[in-house]
Design the sequence.
């Protein structure tokens, strides 16, 4: 580089660049509900997913640049499957996965010219007396342990504030879906069509692989039953 | 950059196959076992497994015994293993490598589904298993033969499908039923008598359990219903709703009635 740039300035510029990139996209929310852990994303595409199963009781949500969080998602699945195959399925934990992501994003942020424009959420449904865990991992690798909900991407902060105002403890699934739909709609200024919501649930009532997607007809049924 | 924190996969690695991933990570030794005297007789072997189609899907069952020559190696192993929402694999042959193959196959199928966001087709899964059997050929030459049976509900075709394999990796689809393992011949003969097209699920489950009983009756390596230890064959049904295991209680009830019926005949 021909000019001297102070490290502070460099980091600030990178952070600003990443934040801008992430804020341009749409949001995703992960929320604890009575029936499990709910993943929801504002996603107009039916095939380019933002949320995904990672392992038996672990799921992933990513926002920002698709190609970048898609790569991270795949790396996470490989990591989990390798670990589960080498040791045992019970040895795959969200905490170790979140740490690996944090390392990866942190290294990329400090060493690469262009930081990754992504923010991701990982959650694991608790079992055998272990509580549910939700981790939010930021573009610079900082990691946050969220007790109830995590919102990322787009207008994440107002969205998170809005939701925290309305839920204090894990709500029933139907109510949570309705709340999220309203919140997405309120922030974008137009009502949110169900077809634009990508929803998945780590379902407490299942065993084995507990992640399941809820399509728009499933959502419609859910909202009808709940009201 | 991307793989640094993630188990040292090479940069730019991109494949939806777990086997590729395992090889790339350097944790998989695919070298054939050293030449030497065949181990086969000294290792546990999984015995009888079978599958048959019914109107809405397919049922798969296996006895619970592993035999080591003339001895019982285990009374309660499970030879039928669910792979995903729609399919199961059953194993016969050298128990250790066979169970390992089934475990790897399951991860392989699940890995693909998670990475790609869609399930492999039933034929795709069957082919994949064929490759794995072929790759185990050097071990088969050492006497560690693994012969799986694959069955699943095909959501595209709306029916159950059964695939059998030979030790060289040959894959053949069966239209009606198949049984394999040391008692396979006897189970096949029984199924030949019991099978008819369009039977319903309960009939198919009964036919499967009856065939296993006949196999256990004729073959020393195959375990029958064990009323003393309460160990009964495993039975899975696969249809549009997914894979379902019959409870041991259900199977026990069937065999109690069946054995009662045999006694009355005498």
Sequence:
């Amino acid at each position: 580089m021909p000019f001297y740039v102070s490290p502070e300035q460099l980091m600030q510029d990178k952070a600003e660049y990443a934040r801008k990139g992430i804020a341009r996209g749409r949001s995703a929310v992960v929320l604890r509900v009575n029936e499990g852990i709910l993943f929801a994303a504002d996603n107009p595409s039916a095939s380019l997913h933002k949320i995904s199963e990672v392992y038996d009781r672990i799921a992933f949500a990513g926002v920002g640049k698709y190609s970048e969080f898609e790569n991270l998602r795949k790396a996470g699945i490989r990591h989990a499957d390798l670990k589960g195959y080498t040791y045992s399925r019970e040895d795959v934990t969200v905490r170790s996965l979140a740490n690996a992501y944090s390392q990866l994003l942190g290294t990329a942020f400090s060493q690469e010219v262009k930081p990754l424009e992504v923010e991701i959420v990982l959650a694991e449904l608790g079992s055998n007396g272990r509580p549910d865990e939700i981790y939010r991992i930021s573009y610079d690798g900082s990691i946050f342990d969220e007790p109830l909900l995590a919102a990322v991407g787009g207008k994440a902060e107002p969205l998170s504030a809005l939701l925290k105002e309305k839920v204090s403890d894990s709500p029933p699934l139907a109510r949570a879906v309705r709340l999220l739909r309203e919140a997405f709609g309120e922030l974008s200024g137009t009502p949110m069509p169900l077809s634009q919501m990508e929803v998945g649930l780590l379902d407490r009532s299942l065993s084995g692989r507990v992640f399941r997607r809820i399509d728009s007809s499933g959502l419609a049924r859910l909202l009808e039953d709940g009201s | 950059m991307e793989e640094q924190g993630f188990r040292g996969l090479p940069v730019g690695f991109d494949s939806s196959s777990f086997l590729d991933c395992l090889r790339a990570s350097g944790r998989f030794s695919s070298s054939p076992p050293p030449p030497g005297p065949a181990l086969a007789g000294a290792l546990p072997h999984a015995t009888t497994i079978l599958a048959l189609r019914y109107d809405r899907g397919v049922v798969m069952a296996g006895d619970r015994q592993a035999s080591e020559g003339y001895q019982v190696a285990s009374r309660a192993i499970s030879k039928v293993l669910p792979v995903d929402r729609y399919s199961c694999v059953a194993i016969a042959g050298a128990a250790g490598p066979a169970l390992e193959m089934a475990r790897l196959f399951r991860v392989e199928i699940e890995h693909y589904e998670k990475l790609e966001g869609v399930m492999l087709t039933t034929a795709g899964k069957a082919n994949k298993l064929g490759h794995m059997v072929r790759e185990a050929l050097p071990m088969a030459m050492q006497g560690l033969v693994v012969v799986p049976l694959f069955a699943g509900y095909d959501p595209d075709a709306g029916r159950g499908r059964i695939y059998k394999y030979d030790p060289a990796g040959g894959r053949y689809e069966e239209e009606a039923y198949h049984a394999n393992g040391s008692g396979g011949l006897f189970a096949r003969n029984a199924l030949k008598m019991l099978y008819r097209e369009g039977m319903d699920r309960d009939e198919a489950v009964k036919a499967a359990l009856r065939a296993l009983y006949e196999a256990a009756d004729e073959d020393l390596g195959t375990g029958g219903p064990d009323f003393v230890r309460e160990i009964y064959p495993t039975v899975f049904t696969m249809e549009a709703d997914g894979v379902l295991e019959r409870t041991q209680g259900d199977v026990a009830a069937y065999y109690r009635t069946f054995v009662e019926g045999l006694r009355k005949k005498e």
